[in-house]
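Protocol step 4 of 5: obtain the predicted structure for the target chain.
Materials: sequence only (see below). No template structures provided, no constraints applied. The aim of this step is simply to have a reference model before the mutagenesis design in step 5. Sequence pasted as it appears in the construct record:
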Amino acid sequence: MKILVFESEIYSYHQIRTIVEDYDAQNEVIGPFTSTEHAREYLTEHAADVDIIISETVLTDGDVFGVLDSMPHRVPVIFITSHKEHAFKAFSYLSLSYLLKPVDGEALTEALARAVRLHKAASMLTPTGGWTKNSDGVTRIAVKKLHGERIVHVSTIRYIVSEQKTTYVKLLDGNSYRIDKPLEQVESMLGGGFMRVNRKFILPLEQVAGTERIENGKLLLLLKGNNPPKVVVSRTRKVEVCKWLRSE
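Step 4 output (structure tokens):
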């Protein structure tokens, strides 16, 4: 497993590294990241590869919470710190332990065991590329950014569209990202709350505001929000799409 250590005290870093490697010699310890700037630079290129983070709450140039907020997906975090006052804020992240210095080997080992179990459980629910799935279908998807990936929840999707043989997801916040999967594969992975209504578009049911009959027996789907795309359903698909719309 790849474990990042955010720690400005070199002695504490070496203690943590020894405990982590004693727990499992195959663990790859990356660090120390002594500043938030240093940590951000690394995560810009390698965030998708991170399995666990062990972190002080304050580094040489400020607290780490802004760095954790910039992660494209959530990973288990073990805090080891001299600052008691950050405990409440720390647990708003995927924090498994909030340990106070000096470093306690037994407590860190127990925290590592919990982090490893959580990571393995999440991996079992993840098909490929960060797509997290449960019994109702995919709940989170990985989208491409300029540097790395971002994980988004399906509830934030406005629509998914195929343009020039590339698949894009349009989010409710207005951002658009590329997906490294064809529309056919995306369709098969999403649950019943989504439907491929024509060759170009997959829509979430809750984003369809209404319908309008147009020429040649076709159906125009009216989406919520400003500047919606024109989504036309063919005459042959109309009955199936209407049945899906009534299933709400």
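Step 4 remarks: The chain is about 30% helix and 35% strand. The mean pLDDT is 87.
Proceed to step 5.
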